[in-house]
Design goal:
Layout: H1 10-26, H2 29-33, H3 35-58, H4 61-87, H5 95-120, H6 132-157
Helix pairs in contact: 1-3, 1-5, 3-4, 4-5
């Protein structure tokens, strides 16, 4: 499936949800007492969705990859701080919520890794480089690959 807007990307939606949930937990008493931790985790959580959006809007595969890895790093940063919070006694009442947030951050990291892996293997250089000529070349390559696959299937049957 092709996406034309970053807002439609499932990974961006998950990252946006992560940021909203981090901001919500930041309103709770234990995190309000730890201002620097609250500020850092909120910034890191917001960075995940923002970097996905920025990379998507850049229009080239190499730039998108760069921003996906930055987003993935930010998701790891969120997870690291959540691990620290789990170990701090002040957050014992939030243990279940913290665990759920860690799982969400890890899921986002996996999605970003999978997307980046797919992009690294792609011959497409990005939207910015698509012209009518490159679209025709890609279509011809796709049709050739389908033909060769059908031919191979027929050979195996005989």
């Amino acid at each position: 499936m092709k996406y034309s807007r970053f807002e439609d990307l499932p990974v961006w939606q998950a990252a946006s949800d992560l940021a909203l949930r981090i901001f919500a937990i930041g309103e709770k008493t234990p995190l309000r007492r730890h201002r620097s931790l609250r500020d850092q985790i909120e910034r890191a959580a917001l960075s995940v969705s923002n970097n996905i959006a920025e990379g998507f809007e850049r229009g080239t595969t190499p730039e998108l990859l760069t921003f996906l890895y930055i987003a993935r790093g930010s998701a790891g940063e969120v997870r690291s701080m959540l691990c620290l919070m789990e170990r701090m006694g002040a957050f014992s009442d939030l243990k279940s919520e913290i665990s759920n947030l860690k799982s969400l951050a890890e899921s986002i990291s996996r999605q970003l890794r999978g997307w980046a892996g797919t992009l690294q293997d792609s011959p497409i250089r990005g939207q910015r480089y698509l012209t009518s000529k490159t679209r025709r070349v890609d279509q011809a390559r796709h049709e050739r690959d389908e033909f060769l696959h059908e031919l191979d299937t027929l050979r195996k049957k005989t």
